[in-house]
Specification:
transcription; globular; 68% helix; TetR/AcrR family transcriptional regulator; mainly alpha; HTH_TetR; transcription regulation; 0% strand; HTH-type_TetR-like_transc_reg
Length: 228
């Protein structure tokens, strides 16, 4: 047999002699990422986000500075490391809603469930983490940007889901209303946390307040996006 028919291309990676090694590498990467994130959070909470340097984080995690920036290109990514999950929450809820369920009903249901479970992505981050964000202009600005991105993702999902014609303002207006309610409720959780309320206390208050907030949108959105 001609060897050229079985030889790998010149730039092809060498075969992995141990298939399990790739799984071990991925596990190691996840562990390293988590270690860096945990050490960074400890420093941010202890001495403030703005005062903490990448070099200090690298030293605390016992890795090189380059390793830190490879895993987290921006410093704020170290503090807010669930950004993609946060941005996608509303759009994902809309995409996964049940037959017969409206957009408003799906988002109300999902938010109340996140309150009941005291989900950190919904704002139940604890007093130290909440104070860390409030004390940092960089993180406060980043959080506003995440809310904006989440609203934009929701608008895109609504436009696609309802087959809105190009240029139709309806999905953007609906996303602004629903995104605004979520932004207000997130801020409310932060305020109550900063005031010293425990997560169970906040959850009890937010359950009632969230129901009221979503009820305010009911007259306008009670039929919008109902799935057949």
């Amino acid at each position: 047999m001609d060897e050229t028919q079985i030889a790998p291309p010149p730039n092809a990676p060498a075969p992995d002699p141990d298939p399990s090694s790739s799984g071990l590498r991925e596990t190691k990467k996840r562990e390293t990422r988590r270690l860096i994130s945990d050490r960074a959070t400890e420093l941010f909470i202890g001495q403030g986000f703005e005062r903490t340097t990448i070099a200090e984080i690298a030293d605390a995690a016992r890795v090189a500075k380059k390793t830190v920036t490879n895993y987290f290109p921006r410093k704020e990514d170290l503090a807010l490391d669930h950004q993609d999950e946060f941005v996608a929450t509303l759009a994902d809820t809309v995409a996964a809603r049940a037959p017969g369920e409206t957009v408003l009903a799906a988002l109300r249901r999902a938010f109340l469930a996140s309150v009941a479970s005291q989900d950190p992505v919904a704002g139940f981050a604890g007093p130290a983490f909440t104070r860390m964000i409030a004390d940092s202009p960089t993180l406060t600005s980043c959080l506003r940007g995440l809310h904006d991105r989440r609203e934009e993702a929701l608008a895109e999902a609504l436009a696609e889901d309802t087959a809105a014609p190009p240029g139709d303002i309806t999905p953007r207006a609906v996303a602004a209303l629903l995104g605004g309610v979520h932004r207000v409720l997130f801020t409310r959780i932060q305020e109550l946390t900063a005031a010293g309320r425990t997560n169970p206390e906040i959850a009890r208050l937010l359950d009632a307040e969230a129901r009221h907030a979503f009820d305010l949108l009911e007259p306008s959105l009670h039929h919008y996006g109902r799935r057949p």
